[in-house]
Write a structure and sequence with these properties.
This protein is an all-beta fold. 0% of the residues lie in helices and 50% in strands. The strands form 2 sheets. Strands 2, 4, 5, 6, 9, 10 and 11 form a 7-stranded mixed β-sheet that branches. Strand 9 and strand 10 form a beta hairpin. 29% of the residues are buried.
Length: 117
């Protein structure tokens, strides 16, 4: 059974930083692009960032460009989201995700990020 386990969320002041991690297991991590999504209360889930299987290409939502960085370590089966210059509007539950070639859509349990003074 595929597992995605996020960690690293918490409470941070505006302007602060957090680094989220997503530990993957029970699938061939290095062959799949990985995504980070977020969902704020009362809002739809939003794609935040994507990284290709090799890490050679990344894309970001306009709302986080220049502040967030997605990366991966295929030796550790882990994808990261470095979040800098955090704003209150970044408050959300953050999820890692991937789609496999068979159409499976896999999600972690999420980690809460709260940006507040």
């Amino acid at each position: 059974q595929v597992q995605l386990v996020e960690s690293g969320g918490g409470l941070v002041q505006p302007g602060g930083s957090l680094r989220l991690s997503c530990a993957a297991s029970r699938f061939t991590f290095r062959t799949y692009a990985m995504n980070w999504y977020r969902q704020a209360p009362g809002k739809e889930r939003e794609l935040v960032a994507t990284i290709t299987n090799t890490g050679g290409s990344t894309t970001y939502a306009d709302s986080v460009k220049g502040r967030f960085t997605i990366s991966r370590d295929n030796a550790k089966n882990t994808v990261y989201l470095q979040m800098n210059s955090l704003k209150p509007e970044d408050t959300a539950v953050y999820y890692c995700n991937f789609l496999n070639w068979g159409g499976g859509d896999y999600w972690g349990q999420g980690t809460q990020v709260t940006v507040s003074s």
